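If your schedule permits, I should be very grateful for your opinion on a structural question. Kindly check, if you would, that the fold set down in the tokens agrees with what the sequence suggests. Thank you for your consideration; the sequence and its tokens are set out here:
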Amino acid sequence: MIAFGVAVTSAATYDRYALPGITRAAEPDSLVMAHQTAGSIFHNYNLLLDKAGTHEDLEALVLPHQDTEIVDPGFLDRVRETLADPDVAVIGCAGAVGVRGPAWWQGAVTWASMSHRYQEFGGGEFPGPTWTPERSASYASPGEVDSVDGFIMVLSPWAVRNLRFDESLGKLHGYDFDICMQARAAGKKVATADFKAVHHRPLELLSDPEAWIAAYVALVEKWADHLPDTGADPERRAVRAEAEAACARVMTASQSYRGVAIERELRRVNQKLEDCGAAATRLKRELDATSAKLGASNHELERATAKLQDVVESSSWRLTAPLRALRRRFRRR
């Protein structure tokens, strides 16, 4: 049995995105756990792990965000195929190697079959580099990575029963990197799988930069002995600078997304204006043509009326009036 667990802070968001995706992917015997939360994602995920771990027939636990939609009809087949390797503990659809912190995208991204959809500025989408396989780089492929994007993760039964999210790290950031590091430190694998999921989220990627930086520093300090050696000064100041640089890149990407979204909306508005202008021009031509036809008809009517008036008022018309009256009387008889 494969279980699904979601930490819910907004029932409307869960009903709109996560639930349809789970319904699409789930099997008749799947366990669906929607946990209403007001605490940290670390704590709520641990509650879901505790609950799922009591099921002896558990094959995997899927942990999507409430704004994540599973769109791959073969999702569970992909999960089972990847977990066929007993050493795999954590699965995602986007990940990288050479990762030194929660900014997993700063490593070498090897797979990202995900898409970011937004509602601002008329809505739009930023597909991941392997969302469309035929457009992917030749070196891109799912497989073992250092860390995955936590917007959707799949944990093996071993991970559910042996790993726990570190609640001392904060409320929101870094839980995915930390659980991946825990799995790897225990000799297990983290892997990406070829399934598709959509993250429905705002263009603003970081709402609290300071909290993200603090989590980054805490995670680098926790896992310093397990991270790739870059030759950097291990002092906290260097770690802080690294965190700030990574945060700045996220903020830059966020603004870039907003710029692209605004540009797309402006193009749509301009196209609508052009279409309206063309329609107005056509309507004006039709109105002008109709007015011209009406003017010509009125002119002809005036000419016919004047001609009739001339006939009625002529002397010949008056002289022949008795004959016309006699003809009408004869027709009536």
